[in-house]
Amino acid sequence: MTAYDVHKTVAEVTERIRERSRKSREVYLERLADRAAKGPKRSTLSCGNLAHGFAACGPRDKAALKGDVVPNLGIITAYNDMLSAHQPFETFPGLIKQAAREAGGVAQVAGGVPAMCDGVTQGQAGMELSLFSRDVIAMAAAVGLSHDMFDAAVYLGVCDKIVPGLVIAALTFGHLPAVFIPAGPMPSGLPNDEKARIRQLYAEGKVGREELLEAESASYHSPGTCTFYGTANSNQMLMEIMGLHMPGASFVNPNTPLRDALTREAAKRALAITALGNEFTPAGEMIDERSIVNGVIGLHATGGSTNHTIHLIAMAAAAGIKLTWPDISDLSDVTPLLARVYPNGLADVNHFHAAGGLGFMIRELASGGMLHRDVRTVFGQGLEPYMVEAKLDGDTVARSPAPELSGDEKVLSPISRPFQPNGGLKMLAGNLGKAVIKISAVKPERHVIEAPAVIFHSQEELLEAFRKGELEKDFVAVIRFQGPKANGMPELHKLTPPLGVLQDRGYKVALVTDGRMSGASGKVPSAIHVTPEALDGGPIGKVRAGDIVRVDAENGTLAVVTDAEDFEVREPATADLTGNAFGVGRELFGTFRAVAGRADAGASAFG
Questions:
Q1: Measured distance CA(431)–CA(194) in Å, rounded
Q2: What reactions does this protein catalyze (predicted)?
Q3: Which of 129, 240, 280, 402 is most buried, by CB atoms within 10 Å?
Q4: Binding site for [4Fe-4S] cluster: residue ranges?
């Protein structure tokens, strides 16, 4: 294999995605070409339209926007100052506008999108809005861009559903160039293993709320993304490896000179790749099947978020690309795990970045034939410019090749010595339907669990059983009616500490659910996103207490070990879900629940 060959499985999966998507992709690209052929949209606006569009601008920007020769950059921002990851965006529009003027263009805030934090809503009723907030974000961004005032757009977002929603919007407006601008992770706080220890002690009743809050506050302590490798930081990795970030931008801390320089550079680059210049790079053409496959490979190589088995499918679909769970699973089987970041290790993303970060990892994966090098990016042609680390040279960004050696092989390994030969994200299938399991943090002796089922219809029911001492045994917790149609598919992180306690006490424990566990899925084997969900007639609704359930990550199976004929004719269980239909805005999301697609199709309201 030469340095530029692509691994056989990577090539085969890419080709079958391309063939499967051929018709839908052609229709999508034809629509983009038609839009792009019409030129800058301001030229089609009436004088009244245009006057409204620049009425609030200063004299210089207003004069520039009266013609069609100066590019206008639309800013879509997820800023709010409650969420640590998005608070730094407060100052970004000013930086972007100044950079745009320096580059001979104009920038306007086109619109804001909501940004909710799963860390705040975890275990609360508001979490039932979380998954659908992705589609709301896509629609909110579309409203901002619908004014047709812009030649390119930059997207300011970081966390769980925000980036996937913004990508869906960027690809829906794929005739425009799109650059994503991150805010960066907060500096390291309380070590992750200590945080996990305090959480488990709290679950056992050995420390109180005061001690728990002190530990949590020491972990989540300043502006920036949470430092564990959950969905938010998986998002940032994806944006860089898919070529939507500036090279080296993902994990630079906020409120630093380098972070500001990267933001200014991103704005200038977005203006440079509009149709008014010589490097026109519309997002919908740039992101293709190879870009999506590169994203999946990056997810596996870093032990990334299980949420992206849903989000990547929805993101790809926005560009007419049909990605499936089997595609993701087959790529996992051949992708070496190169990173150990909490919860798959003790390090955080700052340690990962310091050890060589994405520049090192992208180079290693490419050298092993695991990535398509010939993709287009917002920086130009090919992935080579992303095999770097970004530094500061005065007030501007300078880049040097990524280090030849990892700075810490306990955190980031070369491809010649991976932590394990596969990505640890597997698909399960059997008489309980299809599911996803993440085993990169699960000990090998727990990859197969066979035990009696204990049935719950909420995570609160399981917590109550744990408090009463009713779970001191081997069991598989089956938590159903947690899918998109039932209650919006919330993450079930309240389950992690008690199940971890029981596992540490020596019991064989596993979780089976049609809900989510996200990027923080940890040491307990968890078959999640079970599809079809219980409310959609899925066989998970037929499981009875005491049934022997087998969760087998080695052979990729999820099944009730019972007489097949008996299981087939069983009546599925029902649940009273009226309590999920109102409160904290849930009544406004009834339409989303009614039309939500299956998890393996992206759980989207967009068909």
A1: 40
A2: 6-phospho-D-gluconate = 2-dehydro-3-deoxy-6-phospho-D-gluconate + H2O
A3: 240
A4: 159, 226
Strands (E), 141-217: 152-156, 178-181
Task: Give yes or no for residue 220 having a pLDDT over 90.
Answer: no
Binding residues: 159, 226
Give the list of residues 6+ apart from residue 569 with CB closer than 8 angstroms, or none: none
> Would you state the structure tokens that stand for residue 532, as one six-digit string?
């079809």
Q: How far apart are CA 528 and CA 518, in angstroms?
A: 9
Residue pLDDT, tens place only, 112-152? 999 999 888 888 999 999 999 999 999 999 999 999 999 99
Q: Are strands 509-513 and 475-479 parallel, antiparallel or unpaired?
A: parallel
Q: Let me know: does 284 contact 321? Beta carbons within 8 Å.
A: no
**Bridging pattern class, strands 509-513 and 448-456:** unpaired
C-alpha torsion sign, points 258, 263, 268, 273: positive
Which residue reads 């293709």 in tokens?
288
Give the 3-state DSSP-derived string for 241-252, with helices as H, strands as E and coil as C.
HCCCCCCCCCCC
The residues near 468 (Cβ < 8 Å, ≥ 6 apart) are none
> Which amino acid does the sequence have at 271?
L
CA angle 81, 86, 87 (to 5 degrees): 40
DSSP state of 526: E
Strands 380-381 and 425-430: unpaired
Contact call for residues 526 and 517 (beta carbons, < 8 A): yes
Rounded Cα distance, 498 and 506, in Å: 13
Q: Could you tell me if 146 and 205 are in contact, meaning their C-beta atoms sit under 8 angstroms apart? A: no
**Helix, coil or strand: residue 337:** strand
Q: Are 459 and 568 spatial neighbours (Cβ–Cβ below 8 Å)?
A: no
DSSP-based helix, strand, coil % in the chain, nearest 5: 45, 15, 40
Highest mean pLDDT among 103-107, 208-212, 340-344: 103-107
Backbone angles phi, psi at 396, to 5 degrees: -120, 165
| DSSP H stretches of helix in 192-256 | 192-203, 209-219, 231-241
**pLDDT-derived band at 68, boundaries 50, 70, 90:** low
Kindly state the tokens that stand for 584: 């904290």
- List the one residue out of 603, 503, 519 whose CA is nearest residue 122: 519
Residue carrying structure tokens 């008489």: 431
Tokens of 331: 């790529």
Better pLDDT: 440 or 550: 550
Core vs surface per residue 492-507: b (16+ CB within 10 A) or e: bbbbbbbbbbbbeeee
Interacting residues of 51 by C-beta distance below 8 A, sequence separation 6+: none
Backbone phi and psi for residue 303, each to the nearest 5 degrees, phi listed first: 65, 45
What's residue 66's pLDDT? 77
- The answer to whether 489 and 599 have CB atoms below 8 angstroms apart is yes
Q: Is the pLDDT of residue 1 over 50?
A: no
Angle formed by the axes of helices 308-317 and 130-145, nearest 10°: 30
pLDDT (mean) for 45-55: 78
Report the greatest alpha carbon distance in the chain.
77
pLDDT grade for 375, boundaries at 50, 70 and 90 = very high
